[in-house]
């Protein structure tokens, strides 16, 4: 079976769904290929900066309609139990990927996006046209293909992307819990070897999502032992975990999380979201980057398909330059901040400095966040 579209998007997370809605609103025939069905929980911090709200409004999506919690405050603790609090410059909101992805999926369907729940096995580019093959041996053709399939995939190996060859030392664990936590606050609690992000989402649930190194984790038999001996040295984390009731029967986990530099164009595919690059979770703004990259790619693709950009080569160059201009500072700042706070001897000293010079905190947050998205 072969079917033709204007654009094929591989991956139906935040970046893929928002690009699909954006492009379909501009009257293009869009196919979204996502291997999983909706709704589905994902390992994610589930806090997102308000910078995306103008774009979400353009797409026709209001997160507060689906129970998103408004967040205005930020708290950071070290594993030495030093704490600092601040007001978020733009503010943000908390909503689960279970709810947000599902509602964006429903909006994509309303905008006549075609959705196939398939696993993509191959992408071929020849004679200025893409052929995308799935596990069921269906073949789809399009002028444009967008890669939005997330942190890492078998496609990355097929495309021989450089980052996939390097083993990553990180893994992540996520819980939803029921308990006491200020819904206006997003917290980042440091422990030896990692960080745990905490925020309220819909249904009054608390999202607890932490990232750790294998080195810190490997000496313990299981997640419960690791939390008991490592996480709970941070008193704030111990209180949250021991005084809350876990909603998930088992935590969600992912491994091989890579913060290596990625390319934004591969085999003429435009990469968006985590497929193009990830900011360290310490900076808590990966979801906003997903939406922003989807907007950038969609705007360039529209210009290309409407002949405002003359050639595919120009399209790829313009998108790559726009992506770097938009995100390079965020990523560099994220790497630097994460490195500094990973130094056990240095993190308490940094917090002491920040407590004495509190005006620095909003400036640091702004370095890893963007301005409200223009539409």
Principal-axis shape equals globular
Give the rounded overall mean pLDDT. Answer: 90
- By DSSP, the count of extended strands is 17
Q: Which structural class do you get from the secondary structure elements? A: alpha/beta
Task: Kindly identify the CATH topology of the domain at 2-42 and 96-166 and 259-344.
Answer: FAD/NAD(P)-binding domain
**The CATH H-level homologous superfamily of the domain at 2-42 and 96-166 and 259-344:** FAD/NAD(P)-binding domain
**Termini Cα gap:** 38 Å
CATH hierarchy class name of the domain at 2-42 and 96-166 and 259-344? Alpha Beta
Q: Measured on Cα atoms, how large is the radius of gyration? A: 21 Å
Describe the SSE topology.
Layout (H helix, E strand, L loop, with lengths): L1 E9 L3 H12 L4 E4 L13 E3 L3 H7 L9 E9 L5 E12 L2 H14 L3 E3 L3 E7 L2 E6 L4 E9 L6 H5 L11 E9 L6 E7 L2 E7 L5 E8 H4 L5 H7 L5 H9 L1 E2 L5 E4 L9 E2 L2 E3 L14 H20 L6 H31 L4 H10 L3 H8 L8
Parallel strand pairs: 1-2, 1-9, 2-6, 4-11, 9-17
Antiparallel strand pairs: 3-5, 4-5, 7-8, 8-9, 10-13, 10-14, 10-15, 11-12, 12-13, 16-17
Description:
The chain has 375 residues and is of the alpha/beta class. It has a domain at 2-42 and 96-166 and 259-344: FAD/NAD(P)-binding domain (3-Layer(bba) Sandwich), CATH 3.50.50. Helix content is 34%, strand content 28%. The chain contains eleven helices and 17 strands. It has helices at 14-25, 53-59, 97-110, 154-158, 214-217, 223-229, 235-243, 286-305, 312-342, 347-356, 360-367; strands spanning 2-10, 30-33, 47-49, 69-77, 83-94, 114-116, 120-126, 129-134, 139-147, 170-178, 185-191, 194-200, 206-213, 245-246, 252-255, 265-266, 269-271. Strands 3, 4, 5, 10, 11, 12, 13, 14 and 15 form a nine-stranded mixed β-sheet that branches. Strands 1, 2, 6, 7, 8, 9, 16 and 17 form an eight-stranded mixed β-sheet that branches. Strand 12 and strand 13 form a beta hairpin. Helix 1 packs parallel to helix 8. The radius of gyration is 21 Å and the shape is globular. The mean pLDDT is 90.
């Amino acid at each position: 079976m072969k079917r033709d579209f204007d654009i094929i998007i591989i991956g139906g997370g935040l970046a893929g769904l928002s690009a699909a809605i954006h492009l379909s609103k501009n009257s293009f025939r869009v196919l979204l290929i996502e291997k999983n069905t909706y709704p589905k929980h994902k390992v994610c911090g589930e806090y997102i900066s308000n910078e995306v709200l103008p774009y979400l409004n353009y797409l026709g999506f209001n997160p507060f309609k689906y129970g998103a919690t408004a967040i205005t405050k930020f708290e950071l603790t070290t594993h030495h139990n030093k704490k600092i609090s601040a007001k978020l410059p733009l503010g943000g909101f908390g909503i689960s990927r279970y709810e947000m992805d599902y509602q964006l999926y429903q909006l994509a369907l309303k905008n006549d996006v075609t959705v196939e729940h398939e696993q993509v096995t191959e992408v071929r580019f020849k004679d200025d046209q893409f052929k995308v093959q799935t596990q069921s041996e269906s073949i789809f053709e399009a002028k444009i293909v967008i890669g939005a399939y997330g942190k890492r995939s078998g496609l990355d190996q097929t495309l021989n992307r450089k980052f996939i060859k390097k083993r990553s030392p990180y893994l992540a664990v996520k819980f939803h819990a029921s308990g006491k936590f200020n819904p206006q606050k997003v917290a980042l609690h440091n422990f030896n070897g990692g960080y745990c992000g905490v925020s309220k989402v819909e249904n009054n649930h608390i999202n607890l999502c932490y990232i750790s190194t294998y080195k810190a984790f490997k000496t313990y038999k299981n997640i419960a032992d690791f939390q008991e001996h490592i996480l709970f040295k941070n008193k704030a984390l111990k209180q949250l975990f021991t005084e809350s009731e876990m909603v998930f029967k088992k935590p969600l986990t992912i491994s091989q999380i890579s913060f290596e530099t990625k390319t934004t164009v591969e085999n003429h595919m435009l990469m968006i979201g985590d497929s193009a690059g990830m900011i360290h979770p310490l900076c808590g703004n990966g979801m906003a980057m997903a939406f922003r990259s989807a907007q950038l790619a969609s705007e360039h693709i529209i210009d290309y398909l409407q002949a405002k950009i003359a050639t595919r080569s120009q399209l790829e160059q313009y998108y790559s330059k726009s992506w770097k201009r938009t995100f390079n500072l965020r990523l560099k700042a994220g790497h630097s901040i994460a490195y500094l706070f990973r130094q056990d001897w240095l993190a308490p000293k940094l917090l002491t400095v920040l407590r004495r010079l509190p005006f620095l905190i909003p400036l640091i947050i702004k370095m890893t966040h963007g301005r409200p998205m223009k539409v």
